Amino acid sequence: MFAPSSDLILRYGNMQLLRLEGIEKHFGKIQALRGVDLDLDYGEALGIVGDNGAGKSTLLKIMSGAVVPDHGRIFLDGNDVHFKTPREARARGIEMVYQDLSLCETLTVAQNVFLGREPVKRIIGVRLLDKRELYEKTQHVLEELKIKIPSIRAQVKNLSGGQRQAVAIGRAVTFKPKILILDEPTAALAVREVQKVLDLINSLKSHNIATILISHRLQDVMSVTDRVVVMYEGKKVAERKTSALKLEELINLISQSESVSRRDGSE
Ligand SMILES: Nc1ncnc2c1ncn2[C@@H]1O[C@H](COP(=O)(O)OP(=O)(O)OP(=O)(O)O)[C@@H](O)[C@H]1O
Ligand SMILES: [Mg+2]
Questions:
Q1: Residue 87, phi then psi, degrees to nearest 5
Q2: Which of 52, 61, 99, 261 has most ligand 1 atoms within 8 Å of its beta carbon, as the pocket-test mutant?
Q3: Which of 53, 69, 176, 263 is the most exposed place for a label (fewest CB within 10 A)?
Q4: Is the residue at 211 inside a domain?
């Protein structure tokens, strides 16, 4: 797993892992983001909440290279970066698990975890899938993350929502990200599955992975994040440390964000 060396952190003092400055994005006439500044610290878990259409997914897609901003700057480890594709963001250690998970239903758990990077062996010069290595590597990843799936040979279409989410997160972790972005990871889950996914998100900290979580489930955000950002109509309207925040206050911040937004445009 990637671990930022402690001397790197000491050398750069309070440098952030990721910093966004003045991010703006239009889709035709719709202004999805209106000048958003955002910081993410090393190993931090950040929650992003706000109404439908507030710009949460767009902001995170900009971090992951899936959307290119019209204006604004992105700094990663203090370096100015300009991602044009998810591949470029991935190469710099940023992974995103999208709302639709992007898994292949008819492939196995193991094939999904290493999709496009399956180990191969050569038999009389012919390249064949090395199933044994694929299963061993997958088993290792899932054990590291304490993900329990009945069989890594099962097709993804036969898994529960929570198990699918775990496979998608497991796959993302194999790219050894510094930052893992999760868009609504608990939205479609049965109650008993939610806690397992939250435990998994929590465990990413011990792998030195900073996480950004978008969720409408405020109790989930409260239970796994260090800091919460509230968005409204393309702006960041509030930002709080989770330890100093009560659920009722967060609900108020979201429901009152319209007036907060009008009053000062920021926190
Ligand atoms: N590809 C796109 N083309 C056109 N408009 C878009 C596109 N993506 C987002 N938008 C618009 O930008 C605004 C912000 O959308 P975004 O998906 O970022 O919001 P969100 O906060 O993630 O909302 P939700 O909670 O519903 O997922 C919305 O008005 C949305 O309709
Ligand atoms: Mg969204």
A1: -60, -40
A2: 52
A3: 263
A4: yes
**Domain count across the chain:** 1
53 touches ligand 1 (CB under 6 Å): yes
Longest dimension (CA), the chain: 72
Cβ of 68 below 6 Å from ligand 1: no
Specify the pLDDT at position 116: 85
What's the 71 CA to ligand 1 centre distance in angstroms?
17
Q: How far apart are CA 108 and CA 115, in angstroms?
A: 10
* pLDDT on residue 231: 96
For residues 261 and 265, what is the distance between their CA atoms, to the nearest angstrom? 5
Domain with residue 91: its CATH number is 3.40.50.300
Q: What is the pTM of this model?
A: 0.87
Count CB-CB contacts under 10 A for residue 262: 10
Residue 159 domain-assigned (yes or no): no
Q: What is the DSSP string of 78-107?
A: TEEE--SSHHHHHHTTEEEE-TTTT--TTS
Residue 82 lies in a domain: yes
**Mean pLDDT of successive 10-residue segments in the chain (267 residues)?**
48 76 97 97 95 94 96 95 95 90 90 90 88 93 89 92 91 94 88 88 91 94 96 95 94 76 50
Q: How many angstroms is it from 54 CA to the middle of ligand 2?
A: 8
How many Å lie between the centroid of ligand 2 and the Cα of residue 42? 24
The pLDDT of residue 7 is 45
CB atoms within 10 A of CB 68: 12
Quick check: is 119 in a domain?
no
pLDDT at residue number 265: 46
| Range(s) of the domain holding residue 30 | 6-100+176-264
